[in-house]
Design brief:
Strand content: 5-15%
Distance between the termini: 19 Å
Oligomer: single chain
Shape: globular
CATH class: Alpha Beta
CATH architecture: Alpha-Beta Barrel
Order of helices and strands: EHEEEHHEHEHEHEHHHHEHHEHEHH
Helix content: 40-55%
CATH topology: TIM Barrel
Strand order of the largest sheet: 1-5-6-7-8-9-10-11
Number of domains: 1
Radius of gyration: 19 Å
Length: 336
């Protein structure tokens, strides 16, 4: 059975060299393999989840990455940039977005049939981002746009980003809204795990994606598709409560024309398994939205690829459902 992994993270080594010269977040400390994601919030990337340190795997653009895929049974992986460059000054942001996309394009050429590209853009600089998205889709053949739930003090739901979302719809390009570390003071005060993968990631992605829906984004752009990781963040558990409250209480700030659930049912929003190895969570997601809305992704190398593959193969699925999870849904909704 063909297996496509739709969240295979990387960092451009040249970008990390630049982050090591900065005196503020995001800043990289190569001697300790620590990434300062927010002021005095430190992510330790020297741990081993697969075969060698996470940061080294992130920066690998060679045969070792393919070997890990072969060991674990992944046929094709979508290369998606980890967060950093969208928060840089304009000149550096534009430069590293182009360099990152070019590096992925070269990897695709070097290992034919093994990789797809997800565009990383100089998102806060909308005119430049539109140009780069067009280049990625039309010239490099990339499949979708991978962005983040915040750009330090800005978010994708703000009005300035409407032209970029319009361009994504025009190009038939889905947008993967991946979490980023929260900049809220109460989150940062408790350190990296609390503000990021332990809680903050899910909260921030939930806030950004829900505001996109409430703002009427998918009414303005009905063919636009958003991808969420981690089995839909918190939506499978809370969506009935959300719709109940918005139906019960009038709120003039809400511009959407339908219920929140409608945009999931209409496949404006689909989700991946990235970073989730819980049968209860998977079953909740499947019952809430159906197997047709779920796409396989590992969150490599932040998660152990071998463990992720072992987990998904234990799920109680029919052969038809496995085909949908491992490749058909991806090919239908985000790779077409």
């Amino acid at each position: 059975m063909k297996i496509i992994d739709c969240e295979f993270h990387y960092y451009l080594p040249e970008l990390m060299d630049y982050l090591a010269t900065r005196n503020q977040a995001m800043r990289y400390y190569p001697e300790t393999k620590v990434l300062e994601v927010r002021d005095k919030v430190y992510g330790h990337l020297g741990g081993v989840t697969n075969t060698y340190p996470v940061i080294d795997e992130l920066m690998n653009f060679g045969a070792e990455r393919v070997a890990e895929m072969d060991r674990c049974g992944v046929d094709v992986a979508v290369m998606s940039s980890s967060p950093a460059l969208e928060e840089l000054p304009e000149k550096e942001c534009v430069y590293f977005a182009k360099k990152s996309n070019d590096a992925v394009a070269e990897l695709i050429k070097k290992f034919p049939g093994r990789f797809y590209g997800a565009a990383v853009l100089p998102t806060p600089y909308v005119d430049e981002a539109i140009k780069e998205l067009e280049r990625c889709v039309k010239e490099l053949g990339f499949k979708y746009w991978h962005t983040h739930s915040n750009y330090m003090h800005e978010h994708l739901y703000e009005e300035k980003y409407l032209p970029l979302l319009a361009k994504a719809e025009e190009l038939g390009c889905a947008v993967y809204v991946h979490p980023q570390a929260s900049d809220d003071k109460d989150m940062k005060d408790m350190g990296y795990v609390y503000s990021s993968p332990g809680l903050g990631f899910g909260l921030d992605a939930m806030k950004t994606s829900l505001r996109l829906i409430l703002n009427g984004t998918f009414d303005k752009f009905p063919k636009l598709r958003m991808i969420l990781g981690h089995c839909g963040e918190y939506f499978p558990f809370i969506i009935d409560r959300v719709d109940n409250r918005f139906a019960w209480i009038k709120d003039d700030e809400v511009k959407m024309k339908h219920t929140v659930a409608y945009y999931f049912q209409n496949k404006n929003v689909v989700m991946t398994t990235s970073g989730i190895m819980s049968k209860i969570t998977f079953e909740c997601t499947k019952k809430a939205f159906g197997i047709d809305s779920i796409i396989f992704a590992s969150d490599y190398p932040y998660e152990c690829l071998a463990n992720m593959m072992k987990f998904v193969k234990t799920l109680d699925l029919t052969e038809e459902e496995k085909e949908k999870l491992f490749h058909l849904n991806a090919e239908k909704y985000i790779l077409s």
